[in-house]
Write a structure and sequence with these properties.
Layout lengths: L1 H18 L6 E2 L7 E2 L7 E4 L1 H6 L5 H5 L5 E4 L8 E4 L13 E5 L2 E2 L17 E8 L12 E7 L9 E7 L4 E10 L4 E12 L9 E13 L5 E14 L6 H10 L13 E17 L2 E17 L4 E22 L2 E24 L2 E4 L9 E5 L4 E23 L5 E25 L4 E27 L4 E12 L3 H6 L6 E13 L3 E13 L2 E5 L5 E5 L2 E14 L4 E16 L1 E4 L2 E4 L11 E10 L4 E10 L2 E2 L7 E2 L2 E13 L2 E8 L7 E6 L5 E5 L4 E9 L1
Parallel strand pairs: 6-9
Antiparallel strand pairs: 1-2, 3-8, 4-5, 6-7, 8-9, 10-11, 10-41, 11-12, 12-13, 13-14, 14-15, 15-16, 16-17, 17-18, 18-21, 19-20, 21-22, 22-23, 23-24, 24-25, 25-26, 26-29, 27-28, 29-30, 30-33, 31-32, 33-34, 34-37, 35-36, 37-38, 38-41, 39-40
């Protein structure tokens, strides 16, 4: 039973790593073969299950926000983070761009780089891996890196659990996990989660979600296996508006913000998602075959600035056919990973509507026209646009890992993909940002565009001592524009990233740390420009250069007490870029990229007593950053936003109190300024409290 033994061993190691830093955390996905992170020749961070449980993490941004080089913030306490890795993803209007997010090997990121975090039930996640920078064989059309979520396998022996949480601001959480062996070769599990929060400190800021997952696994007589997951998600999320400088000043004084002056007060995303994932694994000699097939269908109701999106006929089909070949090279063990990928997203008859209920104010004088001052509801008005689209990505990847001499481990990989957009529609009316009202659309339109994307990497790790490795990596990758960006600027070109990185990794009995220095040169980077009305306009910057230093470490003071921290220094600049201001092009050469703080750090202490008492405190700080491409104003950032956990475990019972932002700091999770000087702010959440009880049975 070779396969079963290796599977159980892997889960045992992962569990030990969550408790004991003397063992190297296991990366399951960085090289598509289980590897200690010390051996991986790139910057990678693993968030283990114990951290997820101790921090009572329910959203992706809370899991990764303290990883150096990662900027993860949300103003809604819901799955809608602004997520940036080493500056990649900065252009995103909301959500995530330029970063590949995967769950158990299945891309949650669409071929055009949009990511739906509605899929994710963090309470079923056992670990999260963050691979930073371009060049990963997992990363199709993603120059920023890969986030891989590993859920609890149906083959993993685990106790059943019920978890209940209640907190202020209408917070409610229910999670149930039941797993059973049906027979010697058959296993099944059910996971159910329901979450709710009112977020009454901001208007239009509530969230609720219901998720159900069914998993089934089977071992065949030849020790091959199949594992399937069928899941359903219903998510209803309100998205609050940004605030003006005056309104943000009110928030800083009171911790609340109501009746903002934004035009469109009713932005939201209500989704229903049905997903199926099937993975098979079989060993034949030294070759392991790992085909995977997946499908999901989704619909959403998504009011945004100017228009209301409604789409109920969306299908995603995909497969990843992978094999691993163990062999000898240069007299040492080597491995080859190869595979092909195909994914297509098909959307039929997507519609956009005008808002039905809004206030019209008269023009302030010639030549101005009457304009929409604010919406009154998210009721649909007249049909504004229809669209059909098919986005297809197919490609192949190859990675060889070998040791030419003892102590030296090398990785050479390449991936080639073809990304095609086929979009057609009829724009009846459009929202015009300049007049703040509806105007005639362009009528029928079509976009037919393709991009060839290449991702390659060479990495080497050298064993200095039994506990310390040094590594270097050179990687390159392309990033194509998204469908929405092409709709606004069809002439956009793909960008190219070239990343150089060196680092040191130590895994000793009482200390573990990673240190990395990198430089990422990007040609034709796609960036976001804000006009005077808050409209996002996309363009290719000539060149940008991103230089950084990152450190992450943990020290085990005793068997009961761990200290740790992280630090990131980010120096990101435009090398060549002309920004359009009205009808004029203005040079931004040598300016810093906005929003990214030059200094970012976090600290934590975790205390676990043998009698079951436990506690954890985590704090993070962001330095100042520029609010615009012109570098005319800085936001001061924030210091020591602190979370606290106090808990107690007795046999099968666990109770814990989690307090987020315990000092109740009022600060902005995002501060921006447009080319005409208008400032906008999105508030980070004030203090919140949740009491959680769980029982294992």
């Amino acid at each position: 039973m070779k396969y079963r033994y290796s599977l159980i061993t892997l889960f045992t190691l992962s569990s030990l790593n969550a408790q004991n830093i003397s063992l190297d955390a296991i990366s399951i996905t960085a090289t598509k073969i289980s590897t200690g992170t010390k051996e991986v020749s790139q910057s990678i961070a693993v968030v283990d299950e114990k951290t997820i449980e101790d921090k009572n993490i329910l959203n992706i941004q809370e899991a990764i926000e303290n990883i150096p080089g990662v900027n993860a913030e949300s103003s809604t306490n819901s799955p809608s983070p602004r997520l940036i890795i080493r500056g990649a993803g900065l252009k995103a209007r909301y959500g995530v761009r330029e970063v590949m997010v995967m769950k158990d090997g299945v891309p949650l990121t669409d071929p055009d780089s949009f990511t739906r975090f509605d899929f994710i039930d963090i309470q079923d996640v056992s670990s999260i891996e963050v691979q930073k920078g371009p060049g990963s064989i997992n990363a199709a059309n993603a120059t920023g890196g890969v986030i891989q979520l590993i859920t609890k396998s149906v083959f993993e022996e685990d106790k059943n659990r019920i978890k209940l949480g209640v907190g202020d601001d209408g917070q409610r959480n229910l999670n149930l996990k039941v797993r059973s062996a049906i027979s010697e070769n058959d296993f099944a599990s059910v996971t159910f989660s329901k979450r709710k929060i009112d977020n009454s400190w901001r208007d239009n800021n509530n969230f609720d979600a219901t998720q159900l997952s069914l998993k089934y696994g089977h071992f065949f007589e030849d020790d091959s296996s199949v594992e399937t997951e069928l899941s359903y998600t219903e998510s209803n999320m309100k998205i609050p508006t940004a605030m003006t400088a005056e309104e943000f000043a009110v928030f800083k004084n009171t911790g609340e913000q109501h009746n903002t002056s934004a035009q469109f007060q009713h932005s939201s995303r209500d989704s229903k998602i049905f997903a199926l994932n099937v993975k098979y694994e079989k060993e034949v000699g030294e070759i392991t075959y790992k085909p995977r097939f997946y499908f999901n269908t989704w619909d959403h109701f998504h009011p945004v600035t100017g228009l209301i999106n409604e789409s109920d006929n969306n299908s995603v089909y995909g497969t990843d056919l992978e094999l691993n070949y163990n062999h000898n090279l240069f007299g040492n063990k080597a491995s080859l990973v190869a595979g092909v990928t195909l994914k297509t997203d098909i959307t039929k008859d997507a519609k956009k509507y005008e808002y039905a209920d809004y206030v019209i104010l008269p023009a302030s004088g010639w030549p101005f026209s009457p304009y929409i001052s604010e919406t009154l509801s998210d009721n649909k008005g007249d049909l504004a646009q229809t669209e059909d689209s098919t986005t297809t990505l197919y490609g192949a990847y190859l990675m060889e890992t070998f040791s030419p001499i003892n102590g030296l481990r090398c990785d050479i990989s390449t991936r080639v993909d073809k990304l095609s957009f086929d979009i057609s529609g009829n724009e009846i009316t459009a929202y015009d940002y300049s007049i703040k009202n509806y105007t005639d659309g362009i009528g029928e339109y079509s976009i037919d565009k393709s991009y060839k994307l290449i991702s390659s990497r060479f990495g080497a790790t050298y064993k200095l001592t039994e506990t310390t490795n040094v590594y270097l990596s050179v990687a390159t990758a392309n990033q194509a524009p998204t469908t929405s960006e092409l709709g606004e600027n069809e002439s956009l070109e793909k960008s190219t990233s070239l990343n150089y990185e060196v680092g040191v990794k130590t895994r000793a009995q009482n200390i573990s740390f990673d240190f990395a220095i990198y430089q990422n040169d990007v040609d034709d980077e796609i960036i976001q420009i804000l006009d005077a009305n808050g409209n996002s306009v996309y363009d290719n910057a000539g060149k940008t250069q991103k230089r950084g230093l990152e450190f992450n470490g943990v020290y085990k003071l005793s068997n009961n007490l761990d200290f740790g921290g992280s630090y990131a220094f980010s120096d990101f600049k435009f090398k060549k870029f002309n920004e359009k201001v009205g009808a004029v092009l203005v040079s931004r050469d040598t300016n810093h990229l906005p929003y990214i703080p030059k200094n970012q750090y976090s600290l934590f202490a975790a205390f676990n007593m043998d009698n079951g008492f436990k506690s954890r405190i985590t704090t993070k700080s962001w330095g100042s950053y520029y609010m615009d491409n012109a570098n005319t104003k800085k936001y001061e950032g924030f210091k020591f936003a602190t979370d606290l956990m106090i808990g107690y475990t007795y046999k099968s019972h666990n109770i814990q109190l989690n307090i987020k932002n315990i000092t109740n700091k009022y600060y902005a999770m995002e501060a921006l300024k447009d080319v005409y000087g208008n400032e906008s702010y999105k508030a980070a959440a004030p203090m919140s409290v949740m009491l959680t009880y769980s029982y294992l049975f």
